[in-house]
Amino acid sequence: MRFLVTVPASTANLGSGFDALGMALGLYDEIEVTVADGLSITVEGAGSGDVPLDETHLVVRAVRAAGYSGGLALKCRNVIPHARGLGSSAAAIVAGVAAGFTLTGRELDTDALQIAAEFEGHADNAAASLFGGVVVAWSEGERYRAVRMEPDARVHPVVLIPSQESSTKTTRGLLPAEVPHTDAAHAAGRAALAVHALTSDPSVLLAATEDRLHQNYREPAWPETVRVINDLRKLGVPACVSGAGPTVIAFGDLPAEVDVHGFDVRRLDVDTAGVRVRPLD
Length: 281
Prior knowledge:
Layout: E1 2-13, E2 17-35, E3 39-45, H1 58-65, E4 72-78, H2 88-103, H3 110-120, H4 124-131, E5 134-140, E6 143-149, E7 157-162, H5 168-172, H6 181-199, H7 205-208, H8 223-234, E8 239-241, E9 248-251, E10 263-267, E11 276-279
Parallel strand pairs: 3-4
Antiparallel strand pairs: 1-2, 1-11, 2-4, 2-5, 5-6, 7-9, 7-10, 8-9
């Protein structure tokens, strides 16, 4: 058996939708999977030379979690930048889960999300890479849930990727244990508005992406990211941190007067398909 898994990047939070809102992006990793004796892994692109090439590789761990214990040959072609807030870990996990389900003759189902989300402790990025489009994710006890929605065709993401890396664990450590009630109420309203904006009316994205829950608390980790976001928002461009940062995600054209030196600016589509598996034999 030999097949190709294609998995999209993702952005999460989208302002105040902390650990709840996600969206798949048209930036893809590919993993060629072949049933083989033993285990062999090659990696091209992002993470090459840094990620492990044994059973601790994230794709392999996800394959095993999905129920396949046999031999594997993996060829990973990584395009999604690592540690930039674009869901590279979630993409690897979803790719591994999809491969594991394929190897065991199963269709992707709600268990696939559960397995993938358990790796990270929240389902926003994993659900986006799994289902594509816009997702709302939540948990019920120990079960992870998500609903997928179709993005409005007028939603055009732009990502601004700095060379700086960021650790989700580190940036979560900057968040307070409690926030003021007014900020919590603000977050609830803006997260709900973001669902409407991303699926029906992008004209309200500026208000919808305003955050009080996490971005300002994390500013010490990536001050240039926050500067760019603030500069864009002052000029009416919806912008926020992508996931745990330090990537900025914006919607619309970038004004020439905003200094984006040091950022790799990419205009991306919203991926609407999610993870895909294609036979190669």
